[in-house]
Amino acid sequence: MSWDKVFNFTDYSELLPLVHNSLLAGLILGIVGGLISTFVVMRDLPFAVHGISELSFAGASGFLLLGLNVVAGSLVGSLGAAILIGLLGVRARDRNSWIGVLMPFGLGLGVLFLALYEGRAANKFGLLTGQIVAIDTPALSWLAVISVIVVVVMLLIWRPLSFASTDPEVAQARGIPLGPLSLLFMVLLGLVVAMSVQVVGALLVLSIVVTPGAAAVRLASTTAGATVLSILFATVSMIGGILLALGSSVPISPYVTTISFAIYLACRLIAAARGRSRVF
Amino acid sequence: MSDIEDGAQLVRLSGAALGFDAGEPLWEALDLTVRPGEFVAVLGANGSGKTTLLRCLLGMQPLSAGTISVLGKSPTAARREVGYVPQQRRFDPLTPVRARDLVGYGYDGHQWGLPVLSRRQRRERIDAALAEVGATRFADAPASRLSGGQQQLLRIAQALACDPRLLLCDEPLLSLDLHHQREVCAVVDRRRRDHDTGVVFVTHEINPVLPYADRVLYLAGGRFTIGPVDEVMTSQTLTRLYGSPVDVLKVRGQLVVVGIPDHPVHHSSSEPHDEPHDEPHDEAPESAGPS
């Protein structure tokens, strides 16, 4: 193989304007992904993220087959999965087996829809591994609108959500409605996952919605601090990934996931050096 | 509807019963009042419904019969003025929360939206609650790095952050060493003396609370006894309550209860499952004291 395919920075200045939309999308996704990521880790939901993204893939490929809007399909699949997981998986053990049941079904449906689809192959592959160059202005507006909704709702529920994510028993005794709050959080998570699927693909959503938070909680001592770090990590991974992928002929996903993973490793090492936890 | 007498009582249960679909009620015909500044210890074996009683007082569990009022209101309406201390349970080591954040949850953790109150007022209130339990020196430490005893003091500070008129404690001494058990009891006692806060204290450990308890509610096999410590904690009273011979001995100034039956005679049918903590030493003496 030639490394030119992986790293190639010739004609960089001419290429840069072409990815203007992608960079904006990456920035938006970094912010909301990082914002929700800390709580995904605190609430022990990484597996749910995986489950939701597979169902989101099924929705998107179903809509692609029917000739409908792929983003809408992705949202339908994602929100449906998030709500089902929120309603049926209240306890952690229940939840994990329920996700394990739901996920292969969603993935199977997705495979079926794609097998029946006769359009461009890039459309199929993109849903699984990312297609950020395909972000056009209407799609970007959708991302922006959904992001604003997620950020505003997260700020409104910030205090009860932090309380309930740290100490659910006492939070409930203080009158916080754990069930509805948890369901609302799942809906927000569904929205963020549907957005991420458009950009990094269903298989790699975890690198934006789980890894930054998992890295941040190793270093930060407050929930707000962890969230700021997590947003920073997610944004660096997204923007860095797009910029590195620009001259290459491979999708952006491997760049994003590698940066995200490297940040996580670095955080573990720093935490170990500070004596807060062991590396392994 | 709330007359003068009602207002003077922090807790008023009358003819209260609690039963689940199958089997006999956990307890019934329970009358209990708690006055301001009063320390009521709730004792009894596992499965006797101690924790469920607290859940009723918190409005998380409806009674199956009788009436309940907390601070002269429904338990749900009173919740903001009630402090709750759960049993000790470690936080996950990766929880990004400091000691003072945990206390802050008790102050405004239930509020939606962005904070509108002044940050200074919030900080003062949290500092005061931390000082009240003697936790100032580890106020900025990550909560998950603290010892079980320190975490339990924080839980009390959290419960005090809302300046409660009633404090409900559910096995706060569980898995603490004797030193911390005494410290927790002393902190709770000081609070109720200084602020006239009523205390309902559910516990397995009799001895640490004996110096402070004004009255004991002893639950056993669907029945109960309420009264001053020296009237309830006698061989005669507990033998009558359990329906089989029970001895209350005083050894080196510590009370030891011997002979509590595995299944009280009149409640042998099904094992109630209300208490989340399954302790293996169900039939052991209720308190071991210092050895």
From TrEMBL, chain A:
Major place of residence: membrane
Key words of the record: Membrane, Transmembrane, Transmembrane helix, Transport
Entry superkingdom: Bacteria
Designated name of the protein: Metal ABC transporter permease
Transmembrane segments: 20-42, 63-85, 97-118, 139-161, 181-210, 222-246, 252-271
Subcellular location: Cell membrane; Membrane
Similarity comment: Belongs to the ABC-3 integral membrane protein family.
InterPro entries for the chain: ABC_BtuC-like, ABC_TroCD
Membrane topology per record: Multi-pass membrane protein
Automatic annotation (TrEMBL), chain B:
Record carries keyword Transferase: no
GO MF terms held by the record: ATP binding
Record's signal peptide: none
Compositionally biased spans, kind Basic and acidic residues: 263-284
Pfam families registered for this protein in UniProt: ABC_tran
UniProt cross-references to SUPFAM superfamilies, sorted A to Z: P-loop containing nucleoside triphosphate hydrolases (SSF52540)
Keyword check for Nucleus: no
Keyword annotations from UniProtKB, A to Z: ATP-binding, Nucleotide-binding, Transport
Transmembrane segment boundaries: none
Disordered, as annotated region: 262-291
Domain of life, source organism: Bacteria
Domain ABC transporter span(s) in chain numbering: 11-246
InterPro entries: AAA+_ATPase, ABC_transporter-like_ATP-bd, ABC_transporter-like_CS, Metal_Ion_Import_ABC, P-loop_NTPase
Family that this chain belongs to: Belongs to the ABC transporter superfamily.
Protein name listed in UniProt: Metal ABC transporter ATP-binding protein
Organism of derivation: Kineosporia mesophila
